[in-house]
Amino acid sequence: MSTVNAGPVTPPKPPTVRQRTFSSLKVPNYRLYMTGQSISLVGTWMQMTAQSWLVLTLTHSSTALGLVVALQTLPVLLFGPYGGVIADRADKLRLMVVLQSMMGVLALVLGLLTVFGVVRFWEVCALAVLLGTNNAFENSTRQSFVREMVGRDQLRNAITLNSVMVNAARAVGPAVGGVLIAVVGIGICFLLNAASFVAVVTSLLRMDRSALRPSPPTPRARGQLREGLRYAAATPSIAIPLAMMGLVGLLAYEFQVSLPVFVERTFHGGSVAFGFITSAMGIGAVVGGLFTAARGRTGLQPMIIASAGLGVSMLAVAYAPVLALACAVMLLVGWASVSFIAIGNSTIQLTSDPEKRGRMIALWQVAFQGTTPIGGPLVGWVIAVSDPRSGLAVGGVSCLVAGAGGLMLARRVAGRAAPVQPESESESEPAASLT
Fold first, then answer.
1. How far is the CA of 168 from the CAs of 23, 174, 187, 306, in angstroms?
2. Where are the transmembrane segments (predicted)?
């Protein structure tokens, strides 16, 4: 009997940079999700630009602008943690369809009020509260749903690409919104945003449910919110990112308040200039997000570096002598911003017990958006009593302080306790490290 000499086995080629960067898009449900979200998010950024400009037009007050942002994010602070409890209990896909539909309805109402010229400041405030309440439940549901689409192995890449998509929309939406405001009026931006939610709801309804990997729903029980808070406090790789984001979210991520006034009063620019400086931040975030997706790093060390980079670049924008230079440096702000968010989000999700992931993401959203009811008016007040440059500078300093505090805490816990490993799942991957 003769034997066949198979010869040397050729080892598989390692994935290219492009394959590593976009690896989660191999999942059909995630591709469908990204398509719908990319359309809707352009409309969302258009609405955010238009809403800021509408409030500034109605009131000519940076404090009023901060108040609207605060009202829109206050429900995240009040109800966000409970939204995480609901996300851990519920069918996330079904809940997302309902919540995304409600967001479209609210945009439609604001658009009709504005187009017909009957909008009042108190109505903008009321709709901001309703949208914020919806977001308190939608944020944690949407972000924890990503893991159900892609599984644990692709979670880090999917989170980063999702941040890239958000910021790609930031690059397009505000610029388009600024032009539309100048050409056809503010109300059209709200109506187009309402229409964009058709795309995201359709993408959700078309998903293959059999390909999803849902975490076991958490049975209803008393004390689940307190349980989540205790778990977060006892897990350094969750508690430290939350503390860092709490400070950065409080004072740095108040661009809806600081940037419109910065453009108008410092450089005497209009809605188009505001749209383009916001777009510059989005372009930088896209580039930075793709870089982060390809590298795939998590943990406190890269998060601290991103925090420091965000602080330095914000200070550079704050004291830029001309608008062109401010726009150029906003590219770096976008890069550092998306890196900070994506690394922190991934670290928390990869460390969390799967049955508590919704609650951990809810706490992340509270630290990110829920601090705005305090930070938005505070930054608005700083601008009112000093100047717009100071509003951005305060945010830059907060990032540097957060990075220094995170480094100090990480060194204190390193060697004293190993990172908490997540409970067993069908896919295995090491938990995110502290450094």
1. 18, 11, 23, 19
2. 64-85, 97-122, 179-207, 228-252, 272-291, 303-322, 328-348, 360-384, 390-410
